[in-house]
Amino acid sequence: MKVAIVGGGPAGLYLSVLLKLQDPAHDITVHERDPEGSTYGWGVTYWQGLLDQLNAHDPETARAVDAASVRWSDGVALVGGLSTRHRGDQGHGIGRHRLLEILAARARSLGVRLRFEHEITEARAVADADLVVAADGVRSALRTRHADHFGTEVAAGRNSYIWLGTTKVFDAFTFAFVETDHGWIWAYGYGYSDTHSTCVVECSPETWTGLGLDRADEAEGLALLEKLFADTLDGHPLIGRDRSDGGPQWLNFRTLTNRTWHRDNLVLLGDAAHTTHYSIGAGTTLALEDAIALARALGEHDALSDALAAYERERKRALLSVQSAARYSAQWYENLPRYIHLPPERMFALLGQRHSPLLPYVPPQLYYRLDRAAGQLEPLRRLKRWLGPRLARSVHARRLESRE
Questions:
Q1: 248, 54, 100: which is closest to 165 by C-alpha?
Q2: Mean pLDDT for each 10-residue chunk of the chain (404 residues)?
Q3: Partners of 85 in the beta sheet?
Q4: Which is it for the CA torsion 68, 38, 243, 6, positive or negative?
Q5: 222 alpha-carbon distance from chain centroid
Q6: How far apart are CA 202 and CA 76, in angstroms?
Q7: pTM of the entire structure?
Q8: If you ran DSSP here, which 8-state letter would residue 240 be given?
Q9: Angle at the Cα of 343 from the Cα atoms of 337 and 348, rounded to 5 degrees
Q10: What ranges in 110-155 are assigned the alpha helix state H?
């Protein structure tokens, strides 16, 4: 089979690896519009479950990713001058640049052609391919050309955020909340190498404009954020992206969904198909899981149409709970004043419960007490497990009805 993969991110590169391992006779080209070695973002997070999946499908890639990752198991919340630390599951961080290096080297070693600085904006540019994979991100040109067919919908989040790096190496996944005269602003920090961490800063639109971040140039904005988070950064600088326009890239998160994921021999992968809010740290994991599912479907079905339909069914089903968790997580931060004045240990406990569909409907103090009791009483645990998914499905169904 001749395969054209448009987009040289983790999903596209890993799919090329899996397809070559499945059948070395596949003729595979990855087309990437940017130069090799250039990438956005700093570090990405994942958990042991992804590493287990990588090891099951390609142990060589799994070993390289594992060796290049850092680990943490604690979560720290800093609220004003107070702090609390909780032990959690082990998390992993790896630089996005390093992850792409690993995947590109593995793909090349298997005979995949990588074409950098080669932009594909329409499928007819690769018309000789049996399969065209749109792995070109949330603003996918291939998907946009057929947006009506795919049923693309984009919902912008309320809060503003910016993706930064820092030379402060966090030893735990760190949440830092700072109160200003214009409201709260907060950062998520996590290490991804021995020398750098990712630092995502978020705030409400009122705080963003009140602090003047909407008008500040990059140097002014970074200086203000360094001052606000001085205690968290321990004097280390924040680092912005290299940008030719001179301004920082503040964004509103865009949740993207598609009614269908394939059209003839064109199929969507990763962020071209779906996005989930960054606060649950699942974007890269979901993209790689898409690649695993698509490769498996192509291997199990002789007819391409059957394979693409099976891939879409599997991934849409798998994404339901993740998308629900991401939606509630984003809402938790958009409604931060509801939780921020609790004692730090209680606030952090509810931060850990932000994926729950029950939390928005129960007073925070009552939810905290019920959650503590549920941890000790099996009947309450069962009630929580039973009620939560049903409430989530009910809310999801109402949203679907409102779109019709």
A1: 248
A2: 97 98 98 89 92 98 98 91 85 96 98 96 93 96 96 96 96 95 97 96 98 94 97 95 61 96 98 95 96 98 98 96 91 95 89 89 89 64 52 49 47
A3: 76
A4: negative
A5: 23
A6: 17
A7: 0.90
A8: P
A9: 75
A10: 141-144, 147-150
Find all residues with CB under 8 Å of 115, minimum gap 6, and list them: 29, 30, 31, 32
Q: What is the DSSP code string of 251-293?
A: B--EEEE-S-SEETTEEE-GGGT----GGG--HHHHHHHHHHH
Asked if 158 and 205 touch (Cβ cutoff 8 Å), the reply is: yes
- Which amino acid makes up residue 231? D
CA distances from 222 to 40, 48, 248, 395 (A): 18, 34, 9, 39
Supply the DSSP symbol for 237: P
Q: Where are the alpha helices (DSSP H) in 301-339?
A: 304-334
Are 140 and 19 in contact by the 8 Å Cβ rule? The answer is no
With 0-12 / 13-18 / 19 or more C-beta atoms within 10 angstroms meaning exposed / middle / buried, residue 6 is buried
User: Which amino acid makes up residue 210?
Assistant: G
